Amino acid sequence: MRIGIDMLGNQSSSRNRGIGRYTRNLVSQLLSRHPQHQYVLYHYEGLPGMNDVWPGSPELRLVHCDLPDGNLRESAEQIAAQNRDGLDILLQTTPLECYSGHLPPAKTLRGPKLAAILYDLIPMLFQELYLSHTKYSQTYYQAVRQLRQYDLLLAISEASRRDGLHVLEMSPEQVVTIGAASNREFFFPDRSQPMPDAARSTLQRFGVEGPFVYCLSGLDARKNLLGLMQAFAMLSPELQRSHQLVITCSMTEEEDQSWRDQARRLGIYDRTVLTNFIPDEIIRVFYQRCDAFVFPSLYEGFGLPILEAMHCGAPVAAGRNSSQEEVVGDAGLLIEAESPADIAAKVSQLLQDETLAESLRTLGPRRAETFTWEATADRAIEALERTARAGTMPWRRKLRVSAPKRRIAYFSPLPPKRSGISDYSRELLAELRRYYLIDLYHASGYVPHLSLSSLDFACHDYRLFSRCRRALNYSGIIYQMGNSKYHDFVYDTLLEQPGVVVLHDFVLTGFHYWYGLQPQADPGHFLRELEREQPDLAAECRLNGEQWGAEPGGIIAACNRRGARLNRSVLDHAAGIIVHDDWSAAQIRQCAPHLAEATAVIPHGADPRQLAPHRRAEIRRQFGLPADALLLGSFGILHPTKCNVEAVEAFAGVAARHPKALLMFVGRDLGEGETLAKAASLGIQERVRFFGHAPLDAFRDLASVTDIGVNLRRPPTNGETSGALLSLLSAGVPSIVIDVDTFSGYPDDVVRKVSWSPQLVPDLQRAMLELAGDAARRVQLGAAALNRVRTHHSWSQAAERYVEAIERTHEKQTADRRGIADSARPSGESQAA
């Protein structure tokens, strides 16, 4: 077999980073371990790395590629399209780096099979962080689309493979995990005592005088450096006094000063050491001598520093997400990376439990030894051989021939946006595509995953809607509207073209306040919308806005308490309305009676999800939750409107009576740590767990192993339907709610209701104790919850009722247009004429 390898990974700007290291190690092992094959290595003239010496094969050829007019992309295309070297397969070592405009070459009919190393799809998963620059994002999206046509992707971790299957919708045979490794000859343990003079001198040179916590990080938000510093600031005063926080990260002078200022604000300036860039020889000393290596990344393709630290015998704590879990295994602690509180708890555990730390110093190197370049190369060559031998690819997607469907336009935030409505749309579209061809319209600057995943979808920037609408003759337009910043493009388009509005939040005060602060908005937008709806309230706000802003929750909460809704402009431009419950429909009948006939109630979708006992036990082990714990869970963002502090206060009484009871919070903390502070003040911080934001699958897993759900709202609410509550009910979890607004619509035998009153905390505690002490009552409520989901909330039912609402609205709009056309005809001219 003749294998071509595009060596750009050894020549690009990542040459001295992970991609460069991976390329050199993998290729070296391929050449030395599998010399039976012929290899052609393609280097690019004028870039570094041209003269690297590669060991091994007598069949090795080094091909120097000229750059026509400096065009790296054209050179790469010529290699694949012309195939002058008679390759059986061509491997790309850096397909998505887009270095100097490079793209993975397109698949051609007569060219070689194409393969690529898949490091990660992080830019697709965190588009707001990485794809805001238009020119780069366009190149990256094009590279991703071309990669979808490849015969084989070699994933460096199971997590990257899952992303390849999910985001790119590739077949299992197309994406193979080959793994990764580190340099085990270079990274090794050394805890010799007394500490060698060279190591002591190295540490002292950077101001490290005693025990320390170490992190090798980067500056982008995904690496979560701020979360680590916040966690260190949460350690007990004793641990802060006895330990330093050492961070290695390449920084400019300005960045270095900014992070030192951040440490000062957190009160840890004197205990923080920023080393800036240092060579591997010094990094190795820090790995070897640290008391804990903490890697709180939000997402990794592999997480090489974790493996290096384990090779060096460091007790490791890394994120419970992406590839980090498979690297750490049982040889370290897993942390909820989005929760500084959990990071702090795990770091404290490593620093205070000497037995645990010593155990991990032994387990870490053993586990690290299981990751080898030899095994990586063997798995790679096996996959390359199999792909090269294959003829036609049976797993290629086949075009389906079916009856023509009508086409609709669909406006909504979509994955990877972190939005409950994004998750809602993903589930709904999976059912709705059975009925329609669907054009997805999204905000500019990102591409939804769904746009890549089905022949039933097309994907457009919302700014192209006017042009597309004229050409495509849509049978319906759906606007998913909510009370968050993710809906600005939905709102802008709705004002120009009426359609069916799905009103997820009856109150849109928060959206309009945010919208009015945007650079392109009229500064008077918020007050104008308020005046349009309630002139008297707008006049009062003009006079007392400063005092309202000082109230709890600021101006938004102040307006809501006084009855503001700010949904008039949305209702006035809607051709039809969909809400999720009768309470919202009643509100619309009251404030917009002309829309009563055009309003459909379609319950929020959910499908039952019951797990076998062994799977529940496995999930609890995965998240570090005791198998026998009585687990109370609150799901969704932590915010004062969710009464999280009150939940902790009520739980304190449960914790006193039930020694195995735990309370967990799953969601981003937007409450500035008030919930954690309340737990600490009550002395129950060890009984309260914070998991931070969890991906949808993990969110549902945690909901499924909860014994008692807690889903609270402080009135007045935004009139929202809680997807988090439905996640609990669909898992058969008995749940406690506050009896207000949309939550009041659930029958009393489906949820345990608590009245909103000054006695909320004792009443809530009474409800918790009642369910905690009565297993039969929990079973009864859980069964009723499951039955409710089956009969009222299935996604298939929701899709059918969407079709009814879309078709009814389309028929009415068509009839209205005919009526207008008839009225415009000269007197006496009939429609039939």
What does this 3D model show about the protein?
The chain is α/β, with parallel strands linked by helices and 833 residues long. Helix content is 44%, strand content 14%. The strands form 4 sheets. A 7-stranded parallel β-sheet has the order 3-2-1-4-5-6-7, with helices on both faces. A 7-stranded parallel β-sheet has the order 16-15-14-17-18-19-20, sandwiched between helices. Helix 13 links the parallel strand 12 (316-319) and strand 13. Helix 22 crosses helix 23 (535-549) and helix 28 packs across helix 32. The chain is globular, with a radius of gyration of 29 Å. The protein starts with a strand and ends in a 10-residue tail after the last helix.
The side-by-side strand order for the widest beta sheet comes to: 3-2-1-4-5-6-7
Instruction: Kindly report how far apart the N and C termini lie.
Output: 75 Å
Share in helix:
40-55%
Question: In one word, what is the shape?
Answer: globular
Largest sheet: 7 strands, parallel
Structural class: alpha/beta
Q: Count the helices. How many?
A: 34
Radius of gyration: 29 Å
Strand percentage lies at 5-15%
Give a count of the beta strands, DSSP E runs of length 2 or more: 26
Question: Which stretches are poorly predicted, pLDDT < 50 over at least 5 residues?
Answer: 393-402
Mean pLDDT: 90
